[in-house]
Amino acid sequence: MLKKFILTIAVLFVVLHFPVYAESSSSLEQLDSISDRALEMTKLKRYGDSEKMLTYFSDRFLKETAKEQILDMDELRIITVAHNEALMTIKDMNKGDSEKVNSVTKLRLVVDAVKSTHQPLWTEMEDQMMSSFQQTKNAAINQDTITFNSQLNLFLSQYEMIYPSLKVDLSKETMQQLDTRIQYINQYRPEVINGNESQKELDEIQTELTSIFEEMGEDDTDPSLWWVIISTGSIIIMTLSYVGWRKYKGDREKPRKQHVD
Length: 261
Hints:
The protein is mainly alpha-helical.
């Protein structure tokens, strides 16, 4: 009886501690699913359906954020900007297929970045981004202007796609430092190609990108979740230990009672 009582308390402890967390997680899962569906429609060039999904996303987004505080102000603003851009791009008849896919992908990635606590989707772009940047760097060293501009443009389009997600997952200091360096090589392309000092910026960017991707691949589970897991585990261990001690004590007292009788 006592064992059941203590275990019940442990379960209630978890349930009462996580109602907001569970509800927030559910809300973000819904938004994530809608953005994923919108991206699928865009890749299939079903732009009418994609527009409907993005409009539905907006409706759900407004309802969920009005109902509960699942996002901070920065996340709210970043997702809103990404969504508005995606919807405008889908509606624009002058935008190409790749532009539309990239724009909706940007929204998809940032919603996932807000939802995920470990290895967000944008980290899967590591190989192609690092490859594009390495070729940009090689072209600068060889003073190959055509290849340099081509590969840098490709890298910048990839960077633009994950930019909102980076703002969600990186500190403001790290984001500002990285963005300043990238904007420098974009703005001063001739100097980067012709100057050894400017090319050092490429080394710094490569080092920063490598560090960022490696760091985001590490386990960064929510500390509050670990606290509850540890606390709940402790309660269960204490319960089992107490029950075991009572059983041990009862077994030792049985011979005494029999002897007295």
